[in-house]
Write a sequence for this structure.
């Protein structure tokens, strides 16, 4: 496949939102906008009980921000707009009144770790290593930070944030609560996803919504917080260190 996409498909009372990008499922602003809109729309549909977030391909769940797009940003306003895309997706998951399940079939980098952390329940394969690479390109995991820290705690988040070139295993992520379940391969992952989905679709919709509410208590300020964090990333993206780092990566 060489064409990026976001699809939203309904199967009875399940909404499946899938994204893909030929560059390791990286996310340009257009895909981030579509993702946020798809998740929001699913939550507004009274006939939908559950959302499944997944990506295409096998080896990488999400490589985070599109470096090609980062390289094209020349103003703080453009940087804010780009990073606000990740804020919008995380907030769409947060405010969606129904559970969002994540199918994590491969590696998660940067914003991809943020997506995995933002979903209400993540199932992953043993190959789903994680890395917060932002510091290595002169910025930091500011937008995704609240979601990641909420799931794995301050200590584990700081390890990921500071060791920006080091991978952590799926087992490491599982032990710290980022992943709820691990599977040896994609076939096992899909069996696990199907089992959980079937179980939740038989559950009380009202109870699921109440559980969603209490799990996200105390995050009501995130709309403003994540926008502020996006402005920090947008500003740092314009520094000489960041420009040089991104130029090196886009030339590989």
């Amino acid at each position: 496949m060489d064409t990026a996409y976001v699809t939203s498909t309904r199967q009875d009372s399940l909404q499946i939102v899938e994204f893909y990008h030929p560059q390791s499922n990286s996310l340009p602003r257009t895909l981030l906008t579509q993702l946020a809109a798809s998740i929001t729309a699913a939550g507004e549909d009274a006939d939908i009980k559950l959302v499944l977030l997944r990506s295409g391909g096998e080896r990488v769940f999400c490589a985070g921000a599109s470096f090609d797009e980062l390289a094209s940003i020349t103003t703080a306003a453009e940087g804010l707009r780009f990073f606000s895309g990740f804020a919008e997706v995380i907030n769409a998951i947060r405010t969606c009144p129904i559970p969002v399940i994540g199918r994590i079939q491969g590696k998660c980098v940067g914003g991809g770790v943020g997506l995995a952390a933002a979903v209400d329940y993540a199932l992953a394969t043993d190959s789903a290593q994680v890395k917060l690479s932002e510091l290595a390109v002169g910025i930091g995991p500011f937008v995704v930070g609240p979601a990641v820290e909420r799931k794995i705690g301050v200590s584990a988040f700081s390890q990921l944030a500071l060791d920006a070139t080091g991978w952590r295993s799926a087992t490491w992520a599982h032990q710290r609560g980022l992943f709820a379940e691990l599977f040896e391969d994609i076939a096992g992952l899909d069996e696990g996803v199907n089992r959980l989905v079937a179980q939740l679709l038989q559950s009380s919709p009202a109870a699921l919504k109440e559980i969603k509410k209490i799990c996200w208590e105390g995050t009501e300020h995130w709309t403003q917080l994540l926008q502020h964090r996006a402005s920090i990333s947008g500003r740092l993206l314009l520094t000489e260190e960041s420009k040089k780092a991104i130029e090196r990566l886009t030339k590989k």
Remarks:
- The longest strand covers residues 5-11.
